[in-house]
Specification:
The complex is a heterodimer of chains A (about 375) and B (about 325). Chain A is built from 17 helices and no strands. Chain A is mainly alpha-helical and about 375 residues long. In chain A, helix 5 crosses helix 9. The longest helix of chain A is centred in the last third of the chain and has 37 residues. The N and C termini of chain A lie close together (about 10 Å). Chain B is mostly helical and about 325 residues long. Helices cover about 75% and strands about 0% of the residues of chain B. Chain B is built from 14 helices and no strands. The relative contact order of chain B is 0.13. Classes of the chains: A mainly alpha (about 375), B mainly alpha (about 325). The interface between A and B is large, with 56 and 45 residues.
Chain lengths: ~375, ~325
């Protein structure tokens, strides 16, 4: 097991460097010189231009610049953004990445939960009208043209029903004179949410010691205690209305993303369930006279989960990929929107930074998926 | 090979036997092909979902075919041209749907229905070209790396690993923002990225199971060269799976094109994504009253993508025996 993980780790580090190299030379190969765009201000004299070029290292040959970039990348320095001059690229990523991660983590978790439960039922009702309706509806949502669907959601829920704001991260009028910056508050929110989830996870783990028929109330008690703890921490600070404002802005994008992606999980679970249902142990469970629900949930669904779990981890890797579109529609100031704006304004260091971030995330998720898969399926470990 | 023929001959008169012997090979192959097509069609038609997808695809194909005919015989090009036409009889642009313009006109006075039908053709061409490139690359590389193994296999599989880890849409958007892609270039990029990526891995694993079949060994014993075995025994058996992955590539190609032209990153005359982009740049994006600028185009993209995906899934149940009902 350890050898397998180590081998994958080495492969992934190599892949990462190939990816960065490819991205770097791809951006170098674009027509026109981005230095010219940045340096074409007529107020600058020739000497000033040369000095600026030298400052950014643009007078050097490509390979020399490449090695310089890689050296500073290893030291964690991603350079300075042109369009947000003089902010550091790493600083911008640190500010915007949590927003993207929150949006997509929430959406992915919700859509996988819904997808898994609906897929389970779908496999059970094979051949019924419900299956056709759910499959056609699900696939239509799954392949829906995301910008258009996002717009429809905004039309219906924000413009017509006025239930949610039309986009953006906060309501500027509400935040005028707020005692805290939105980014700082958001980071604190994430921290408390993370701690609470951790507590909840261990609580649920601990409830396995309780007898099965008494487990439910104890689990609900844990959820209530954690929610109470959150309220007890935040209400005295007087920041609740700002938190609710951020959450309010989060609802519509999460709902949209869930609608789009739950069908993928649903269909995967269905296929996986259909394969599991032909196994002998399902017949054995039937022969024992177990109730249908128990066969479905405890015998079939548990074993059908393996591909679903892996695809969950993979889909985290592609959070930012779909993020460009969703974030643009909802003007959600995360990494996707930043990357698109940087690409459109030829802000090369920012584009590189975005690609480095996306690449790192994708590779890490792949590593986690590989380890998880090897842990769950011994055939891969020793194969 | 001799056994079944002798068995069959017992039922035939000598003249008939002679006639069958003299039949050219292509006729027999054609009949076999038609028979397998019939069986597969029956399996496919069992799945009503696939038929829905096929119906949608045929609908859009008819739209695409009808457009040049309408332009030639029915519609006046100065009014109905999808790119340079102008509906001069309307006082306000964009004009709502009327009997002259069934889906209204866009902010520049062009007929929306004509744009919709004109774009259908380029979506089909883009999707099919991208899918053909993908499948050609995927099948060739998959067959080669499964057959030879060793360094070829390692190289292409690591390459595929690298490509599937790349954020696909992001890369296309960055490329589109920096290079101004047009339709053939986009088809090429999508075809290459998905051809060397996930498709290869799946086709290779299928090729591995074919490689160990006994008829491959028989062909080798009979003195077949590597090239002959790959071309005549491995690739034909991979084609059903390749065809299936073509459908999924078409979906992703149409989606990528729409997303890129929605952001205005494609160098293209007219497409469904560009129609929404035009509505956006003219400021009609959040205006629910001018729904005909956005709903028909968005719905078309969604329906065509979903249709190819549904057909792909239905084919999956034909190609993949594990998912069949029996």
């Amino acid at each position: 097991m350890r050898r397998y993980v180590l081998r994958r780790l080495v492969q992934i580090v190599i892949t990462f460097f190939i990816f960065i190299t490819l991205a770097y030379f791809l951006l170098e190969a674009q027509p026109g010189d981005y230095a010219q765009i940045f340096l074409s201000n007529p107020k600058l004299t020739q000497a000033q231009r040369e000095a600026l070029k030298a400052t950014f290292g643009l007078d050097r040959p490509v390979h020399e610049r490449y090695f310089r970039y890689m050296r500073s990348l290893l030291r964690g320095n991603l350079g300075i953004s042109f369009s947000n001059y003089p902010r550091q690229v790493a600083d911008i990523i640190f500010e915007r990445a949590p927003r993207t991660l929150t949006l997509f983590l929430t959406a992915t978790v919700v859509s996988f939960t819904i997808g898994f439960f609906s897929g389970k039922i779908l496999a059970w009702k094979r051949g019924k009208t419900l299956e056709y309706v759910a499959t056609v509806g699900g696939v239509t949502l799954y392949t829906v043209f995301t910008p258009w669907f996002g717009l429809m959601m905004i039309w219906i829920f924000a413009a017509a029903l006025k239930l949610f704001p039309i986009g953006k991260f906060i309501t500027p009028t509400l935040w005028r004179g707020a005692p805290i910056e939105a980014t700082v508050l958001f980071q604190r929110m994430l921290l408390t949410a993370f701690i609470d989830l951790l507590i909840l996870f261990f609580w649920l783990l601990a409830t396995r010691a309780v007898r099965p028929d008494r487990r439910r109330p104890v689990q609900w008690l844990g959820v209530l205690v954690v929610l109470g703890g959150l309220a007890a921490y935040w209400v005295p600070t007087g920041l609740t209305r700002y938190i609710l404002d951020i959450l309010h802005h989060l609802v519509l994008p999460v709902f949209t993303l869930t609608c789009i992606s739950f069908a993928g999980t649903m269909l995967l679970t269905r296929n996986s369930m259909l394969e599991t249902l032909r196994e002998d142990y399902i017949m054995a469970a039937r022969a024992k006279g177990l109730p249908e629900k128990s066969i479905r949930d405890k015998h079939a669904a548990r074993n059908a989960m393996l591909p679903v779990v892996t695809s969950f981890v993979f889909s985290l890797a592609f959070a930012i990929d779909g993020g460009v579109i969703t974030e643009t529609i909802f003007s959600w100031p995360g990494m996707g929107l930043t990357l698109l704006e940087a690409a459109l304004s030829q802000d090369i260091p920012m584009v590189m930074g975005g690609l480095v971030f996306t690449g790192t995330l994708a590779l890490l998720a792949h590593l986690v998926a590989d380890i998880l898969y090897a842990y769950l399926d011994p055939r891969i470990r020793y194969g | 090979m001799q056994e079944p023929r002798r068995h069959l001959d017992e039922f035939l008169s000598p003249e008939e036997r002679e006639r069958l012997r003299q039949q050219p090979l292509w006729k027999i192959r054609l009949r076999l092909f038609l028979r397998s097509l019939r069986t597969n069609w029956r399996l496919f038609a069992e799945n009503r979902i696939g038929l829905i997808g096929l119906a949608i695809i045929i609908f859009f194909a008819l739209l695409a075919i009808a457009h040049p005919i309408l332009m030639k015989y029915v519609w006046d090009p100065t009014v109905y041209d999808p790119v340079v036409g102008y509906a001069y009889e309307e006082t306000m642009q964009p004009a709502p749907p009327s009997s002259r313009h069934l889906l209204g006109t866009d902010p520049l006075g062009r007929d929306v229905l004509s744009q919709l039908m004109f774009s259908a053709r380029s979506e089909f061409i883009l999707g099919l070209v991208a899918a053909l490139i993908t499948v050609t690359i995927g099948t060739t590389i998959g067959a080669l790396s499964a057959y030879f193994g060793g360094p070829i296999d390692t190289f292409f599989m690591r390459l595929a690993d690298l490509i599937i880890m790349l954020p696909f849409v992001t890369i296309l958007i960055v490329l589109g923002a920096l290079f101004k892609l047009d339709l053939p270039k986009l088809a090429l990029v999508i075809g290459i990225l998905s051809g060397f990526g996930g498709t290869t891995i799946i086709i290779k694993s299928q090729a591995l199971t074919i490689k160990v079949r006994t008829y491959i060994e028989a062909a080798r014993v009979a003195g077949g060269s590597h090239w002959h075995i790959i071309r005549h025994h491995i690739i034909p058996n991979l084609l059903p799976l390749s065809f299936l992955y073509m459908m999924f590539t078409v979906t992703s190609a149409i989606f990528s094109e729409a997303a890129l032209s929605f952001f205005g990153l494609l160098n293209i005359r007219m497409s469904w994504g560009l129609m929404i982009h035009t509505a956006q740049t003219a400021g009609y994006l959040l205006n629910t009253k001018t729904w005909w600028l956005i709903v028909p185009a968005g719905l078309s993209i969604t329906l065509l993508c979903a249709a190819f995906y549904l057909v792909g899934r239905a084919l999956d149940e034909v190609v993949n025996p594990r998912l069949r009902k029996r």
